[in-house]
Amino acid sequence: MPYAWIVEPGTKVDLSDFDPDHDAGLDKEEGKALLQVLATEIDELQELMFAARMTGLLVVFQARDTGGKDGAINRVLEYTNVQSVHVASFKAPTEDELAHDFLWRVHAHTPAKGGISLFNRSHYEDVIAVRVHKLVPKEVWKPRFDAINAFERLLTDSNTVVVKIYLHISKDEQKERLLAREEDPMKAWKLNVGDWKEREFWDATTEAYEDALSKCSTKNAPWRIVAANHKWFRDLAVAEAIRDALAPHREAWQARLDEIGDEAKANLRAYRDEVSKASA
What we know:
Layout (H helix, E strand, L loop, with lengths): L4 E2 L21 H25 L3 E8 L5 H10 L6 E5 L5 H4 L5 H4 L8 E5 L8 H4 L5 H4 L2 H14 L2 E9 L2 H13 L9 H6 L3 H14 L7 E5 L3 H16 L3 H30 L1
Parallel strand pairs: 2-4, 2-5, 3-4, 5-6
Antiparallel strand pairs: 1-6
Helix pairs in contact: 1-11, 1-12, 2-11
């Protein structure tokens, strides 16, 4: 069974059904050892993907404040070649971004073939944050579910692998992490009274996430819910999700590289024949 819960298309998600303390019966040391195995596999798969230039990978991270988006992305960067990885963070839209459709700002950051894009928040903020804080009326945000599904279908039809991850933490865990920031001088810069005010919208945010997870989990771009109270398990589940998304393409990538290699060898033989004839 995968470490992340995969939301089957058509499922009505109730986040209370998913335990954010879930650890699959593993302990921290076991989790770290398994992560190293997955990291090696992902490194090999990324190299094949980059060289074959047939497929791109988009990993979308969504979570509440302190949910672990930064930490999860940093861990992914530890076991991937950062030269072909692009990280995009989406905060409140700029004036220029607001002058365009809501997907305009994210489309430019999707990966080229061979590349990886990691989204820290994403286009889903336009059906979650704007809904919770009533930044736009329902008649504006509700149709966006269909627009998002069409956008992600465009990506997958263009050979982009889409992995969407919701990092699931409890309200108590969030409180502990916010308090820990006050005690840690290395994290004090993250302090923001807005994070505490945001807790007042916990239930509304839960409802918004449940709708997004339910309405936008499709066959080609399913949502994965990752129990994220334990950071080591979060990292393991994320790595497994990435490995599982890339692994089915290994044979096709290798076949393409074999073709490229055969073509290069044929060109080299032809060149050597020409040189040999010219010098005869």
